[in-house]
Structures
1.
Amino acid sequence: MTGRRLPVDGLGAYLHCPRQYEFAHVHGLAGDDEEAVETRQVELLRTVICDALRTGETEPRPLANAAIARLAERWPERDDRFHSMAQRRHERRALEATIRAYVEAVGPTHARGVTQLRNAADGDVIGPALSLSATVSLPDAGEDENAAVTVDATVDYVFEDGPSITGVRFVPTLAPLGPLRYRSKWDGDVAELFVDHFDPDADRFEPDAVASLLETAVVLEGLRDLRDRLELEASTCRYVLAPLADRSNDAVDWVRETVETSLEVVDLTDVFLDHHTFGLTHEHRNRTVERRLREVLAAIVPGEFDPGPAWDRISARSCPGCAYAVGCADHVAAEVRFDG
Ligand code: SF4
């Protein structure tokens, strides 16, 4: 970590395994790049959708046409190695279908909200990758202003949504959310999942879902900062994820050469906020998640990267798919012990 700053995805790496965080974010070692194609697809689509939002179009067809026209301009830059021209044409049709699905699901509502916000406030609200940050005080910091860490995150655009401003981030899929995707409140399953993940006596290991809640805390704090800079202090803040590389809903007609798909966005605000903290602050906050965020950062700052008491869960769940397994002394030592 440099200058007490870290990217929000470092939290997810740390939750999967502190040693993984050390390899990626302290030593800067690149892992396996298996998701590169998916990542490039999201990068291209997030750019063309943001460009379409910037046109000010708010009706479905013109908005979709603006994004698809922009895709046509950018498409020649895409240099992925496709097996054939037919596959290349299919990939483009799949991206166009994703644009249409985005427009059908939320596009016009979000576009109107973006336009309202641009008219009401003086500031950039369309990305892609608008920077947000949250400065988090470490536990027991007292008056020590240096005992704080800035966590950097991004959203792709922000729109006005009734009493709220909402940050939207495009992601490949919603799969990492796990059960959060199907829940609408913090109390119950979600609170249990979160607490159990950190309980050394519980067998639960949910790094992706927990990381999403920590990320929500960071993004909402960053949005509150943006809201204040835009002089919209009366608004609350919300955080939405929109998947752009989820092929599970694709319907492909290979004879007619058509692709149709659908897209579902998830608002993480409702599973994040706890009503007690909301009652006290009138902000979308969660005291349990925010306290845990401070504790995780307090472990990262001094370099506590030993997998420690979570080793059994890490070795069973994180090591098998870890990009650093070949050079990882913890993993290799455990394998040797096992073989011996
Ligand atoms: S191989 Fe296992 S212990 Fe090593 S960094 Fe990866 S997850 Fe952590």
Note: The first strand starts at residue 5 and ends at 7.
2.
Amino acid sequence: MLPWATGLLAMVLACMAPLRAQGPFVAWPGAGFPLAEMRHVPEREIYPNGRPRRAGILDATVVFDRRTPWTQGRALRQLRKTAAILEPCGVAFGRVVLARVEFSQGFKGFDAADVEPASGAPADVVRLVSLLPQGTARPVAFLIGAVRGTDSLAVSYGPPETARSKPAYADTAWISYRSHWLPRRDPHYSPVAHEFAHLLCRCGHTGGPSRHLLHRARNFLGSSVLPEDCGRIRESSLVREAQE
Ligand SMILES: [Zn+2]
């Protein structure tokens, strides 16, 4: 082979190597989206130095709409940031499914203010959650085009306090791609971690003089978690004990 051709081939192979390491997507069994592929994210992709020991385990699902600027790389970056944020609380990711889907034609996001009285969530949220396969691990982060009808760039839905049983949309987070791009004072902050923290600690925002994960002021959002929030996150029913 000509030297330049060999060089070109080496470059092409070097570009393909990370893709191979990330593993192929396969059809997502049981998913009702027009297109749905998934793969299991191996521990080393989230924790290159190994998963923290003696941590409670959080299984999770991340679904991104491939017709938006969300990509596998951006989804993984959010997962790694979230893992680093939750680690000091003694929580580590366990089985993580990353799914690449196409929502129905024309779907660009949903109106968070358009809540159906019967279900307690926007109709689009109820509809999209119904397309998940049975047994999908919670929490689920949907990385979508946009969230309208709110000042927030991301929202999450826990179980309503009065509900006897959990509705299907419970423990889902909806993250617009703008929240990924927004310049942050703390580059380690993650909107996925913020929404997962709401779902895990079953708590809202607080204030305070220092930056933290669940601060009510956008300028004060940061990657550190208040000790009381950490405690509740660790005690969450979504977190299971590791079987060592
Ligand atoms: Zn929030």
Note: Residues 194, 198, 205 surround zinc ion (CB under 6 Å).
